[in-house]
Amino acid sequence: MSGGLDASRIDVRIDGRLIVDGVDCTVAPGTFSAMIGPNGAGKSTLLRILAAVERPEAGTVEFAGDKLFELPRRQRARIVSFVEQDSSTELSLTVRDVVALGRTPHHGLFSDAGADDDAIVARVIEAAGVASLADRDVTTLSGGERQRVMLAKALAQETQLLLLDEPSNHLDIAAQLSVLGLLERLALSGVTVLAALHDINLATAYCDHVIVLRNGRVFAAGPTSEVLTPELLSEVYGVQATVLAHPQTGRPLVAFSPSV
Amino acid sequence: MQARRAGRVATAGVVLALVLVLSITFAITIGPSNVTPVEVWGSVLHHLGVGDGQLSLLRDGIVWQLRLPRVLTAAAVGAGLAISGAVMQALTRNPLADPYLLGLSSGASLGAVAVLLLGIAVLLPVAAFLGAMLALGLTLLLASSLGRITPSRTVLAGIAVSALASAVTSLVIFWTVTGDSYREILGWLLGSLSGARWPEVAIAFAAIVIAGLPIMLSGRILDAFAFGDTSAAALGINVNSTRWILLAATALLTGAMVSVSGSIGFVGLILPHAVRLLVGPRHRALLPLSAIVGAIFLIWADTAARSVFEPRELPVGIVTAIIGAPIFAILLTRRRSEV
Amino acid sequence: MPRLSRIIVLAAAVAVALSGCATISAVSTPSPSTSTAAAEKFDNCGTRVDFSDAAPKRVITIKSTSTEMLLALGLGDRIVGTAFQDGPVPATWKTEAAKLSVLSVQVPSQEVVLNSEPDLIYAGWESNFSADGAGTRSDLQGLGIATYVSPAACREVGYQPARLGFSDIFREIGQVASIFHVSDTKLLAQQKSDLAAIPRDKRGLTALWFSSGSSTPYVGAGIGAPQLVMDTVGLKNIASGVKETWTSFNWETVVNDNPDVIVLVDATWNTAAKKMAVLESNPATANLDAVKNHRYLIVPFAASEAGVRTVSAASDLATQLARLDLK
User: Fold this and answer.
1) CA dihedral B29, B33, B39, B42 (to 10 degrees)
2) Cα distance from C163 to chain B (closest Cα, Å)?
């Protein structure tokens, strides 16, 4: 698949245990895909590999024809950005400072932030919905506010590939929908987005493609409506599921009950 | 908004640099002898090739061999310790980190005490430096034996190595100290600039140029570490090599300073915090300004150490502790101005 | 039977306790006095001591000044052990001193001290009587061991001599003599006549008493033995303004004052030669007149603290001073 994310035969071993086992996954360019799976499936680990912030024991990751692990780091950081699940600092930086950190890969060691950078920072702050927090001390923010600031930081990197690990788990409903809507719009503008999502219904509402991870392996991958069947959900999550159609959007809506 | 802050930082920088120059100029006129300020400056200018000094060879020695080297060493050591402290706090993501965290000071003390007791004090800087590097090596070895080297593991290993080196130092002192040789050792352990001559100036300034300047220029990279390793890697930083290079440079810088002046405490720990309260936590501003403020602070701390109780001298390490704590308390109560 | 043995143990414990009390009370409450007994009870550096019983027979001396005091009074046979000596004794006592048992090179521990079963411990420094040293004075006195500190070395207010004089040293000689019930007449006469024979230099020379240190010099200050010796030989101490026995000093003042002579204390761990090297390698002090012209006076460490050697130290320095050619 040219132009998109293409990972093959990824193995990750931590302290001797194989966390990610022979994973192949692809994400088409300009799409918003979800990675789901139970806790401990290896989603975070795999995402870090796909974002090329850590090296796998084996396997390659390519994006738009570039082998990510062979690129110089700064160049790679201008291509792929990554938002961690939980990110915090003790430094009393302002939100604006934090978002401006996202411009780091665009600067050399000595070159300085220019007016362009200020404009980009302002724009992504607005887009992420944290404009009212711009001059606040980041250590005083709530978990949800901080999560959106970290998203803004990744957006400031202006990359073609954006990977996120549970970007909505601290947010309230309105904020969740807002962030995911933003990611959907990003994908429409050409950015390739892959997010690990905890809430299956958020995945079904916004993502046309889904990768299901279980025990470090890809259990299934493909269009959401085809992959997320009650049988799959039962096998992966151990619960009974009924897949309905959302009354307004028509997209799949999953209702759960404990398995008998 | 950013421009306004940048302007503030630049102004602070210029003002502080000016204060530093003035500090040097006036600190060299203070001392227990009766050389007047005019005579002092005349002597310095004479050595720089301007004008005839009015002082006899002996009294000229007071200025040129005792005061000036001492003030310059104080400036360099203060700057070096402040920079090292700031970097250690960034690398270990621990606001209580100081330059001596990785066993550097305890290792240097062991080396210094050993040569002081063996009576070969002329080898003091070398022995202190080697001791510091040895302790650092031990720390890193210990940290790596715990698995992948992480900041917290390194800190813990450093604590263990420091404890070991301190214990051995105490044993050596207790075992071999005779007469009043403990007095000299104590002065070194507390940190003292009374032995600073031109060779010490050379060592300290060489360390600033070789290790301090590169560190100061890495401010932006340090900022990228604000949210941890993964975040820094995602921003395109080579986390491992950056950390190692910065650590090595800091160790070199600290080792050199400790070899020259003993373990002067407090400067590396508190001054970065004080500067942060002034200009915020971004390292691009923090590092150079910490250097300047560190220099100013130690110049005056040492001036106090050698003149408040004249003709007796206090080890400057005592003064840095006594002066530093209240200043920090005052700075904390000041409301931090808006950016 | 068990009941009887318990009574015996109890009785023994009571007896021991009572004897301990008796010792303490003997020390702290003055008994009716004869004229000699009165002189044997006094306040030594804040601890009341009482030697009105028999003179001590088994003495441990800590520091050279204590050992030499006893040797000078002919009491060498009472010494069961020496510790923390500062240097060799003068030639006159060499053979006698060689026979003395050395308990410890440093401050002895309490156990070592007790092992020799002394009845008196005579210390040159107050700090010798610490819990991790020979033991605290109250502990030792509780065990029936008398303690005595050289009064010149007392540091508390009211006990430290405001300015050490030979009268203080002579008074100590008298005290020690009375403790041991011997005569001090001969020794005092000798000391006083030797003292009177010392020529006082009239040239008005200034001096530094350099004891130790390299980056920060440790020097004789205004109220102790160094000052006394320098006054006796006619030297003006540049550090006399500091009201201490010794003090940490600074090279700048030394260079500023440019002393005419420098007295170097010679110790095995810090020789006079080493101090000369320190002075010569320091670019500021290398230009001192005293350093350039080698105007040095040497005094052995053991003679530099207040004691029976102070007079001879002064005499020796006066001789060296007279020989110095000051251009």
Assistant:
1) -60
2) 19
pLDDT of residue B294: 96
CB spacing of B58 vs C258 below 8 angstroms: yes
Write the DSSP symbol of residue C76.
G
With CB atoms and an 8 Å threshold, state whether B33 touches C256: yes
**Amino acid residing at C282:** N
Q: Distance between CA atoms of A43 and A85, rounded to whole angstroms?
A: 11
Q: Dmax of chain C from CA atoms? A: 93
CA dist C175 and C154 (Å) reads 15
Whether B318 and chain C come into contact, CB under 8 Å, resolves to no
Q: How many CA atoms lie within 13 A of A119 on its CB side?
A: 3
How many CB atoms are closer than 10 A to CB B29?
A: 17
Window B:253-282, CB contacts with C under 8 Å: none
Which of B61, B184, B312 lies at the smallest CB-CB distance from C284?
Answer: B61
Residue-by-residue pLDDT tens, chain A, 260 positions: 468 999 999 999 988 888 899 999 999 999 999 999 998 889 999 999 999 999 999 999 999 989 999 999 999 999 999 999 988 888 889 999 999 999 999 987 666 667 788 899 999 999 999 999 999 999 999 988 999 999 999 999 999 999 999 998 888 899 899 999 999 999 999 999 999 998 999 999 999 999 999 999 999 999 999 999 999 999 998 889 999 999 998 999 999 987 66
Token pair of C149 as six digits:
């500190």
d(CA C273, CA B211): 39
Q: Which of C252, C243, C206 is nearest to C221 (CA)?
A: C243
pLDDT less than 70: residues of chain B: 1-3, 178-180, 328, 331-332, 334-339
Taking chain B, what is the end-to-end CA distance rounded to the nearest angstrom?
8
CB-based contact C313:C94 (threshold 8 Å) = no
Q: Is A254 helix (H, G, I), strand (E, B) or coil?
A: strand
**Element spanning A120, H or E:** helix A115-127
Alpha helices in chain B (DSSP H): 2-27, 37-47, 57-61, 68-91, 104-118, 124-145, 151-176, 181-190, 198-207, 213-216, 219-224, 229-234, 239-261, 267-279, 283-307, 316-333
* Cα separation, C301 vs A67, whole angstroms: 78
Residues of A with CB under 8 A from a CB of B: 48, 51, 53-54, 73-78, 80-82, 84, 87-94, 96-98, 100-102, 104-105, 107, 109-110, 113, 118, 135, 150, 154, 157
Beta-carbon separation of B227 and A88 below 8 A: yes
Q: What is the C-alpha separation between B139 and C119, in angstroms, rounded?
A: 52
Establish whether chain A is in contact with chain C, requiring a minimum of 3 CB pairs below 8 angstroms.
no
Torsion-angle region of residue A258: left (phi > 0), alpha (psi -120 to 50) or beta? beta
Q: Report whether A54 contacts A76 (CB < 8 A).
A: no
Q: Closest Cα partner for A132 from A149, A115, A153, A118? A: A149
Residues B59, C61: Cα–Cα separation, whole Å? 47
Mean pLDDT, chain C, whole residue set? 86
A25 SS3 class: strand
Identity at A124, one-letter amino acid code: V
Task: List domains and CATH numbers for chain A.
Answer: 1-79+159-221 (3.40.50.300), 90-158 (no CATH)
CA distances from C48 to B252, C56, C156 (A): 58, 16, 15
Q: What is the dihedral of CA A9, A12, A18, A24, to 10 degrees?
A: -30
Q: Name the residue among C212, C239, C274 with its Cβ closest to that of B311.
A: C239
B339 interaction partners in chain A (CB closer than 8 Å): 94, 135
**How far is Cα C174 from Cα C168, in angstroms, rounded to an integer?**
10
- pTM, whole model, 2 decimals? 0.84
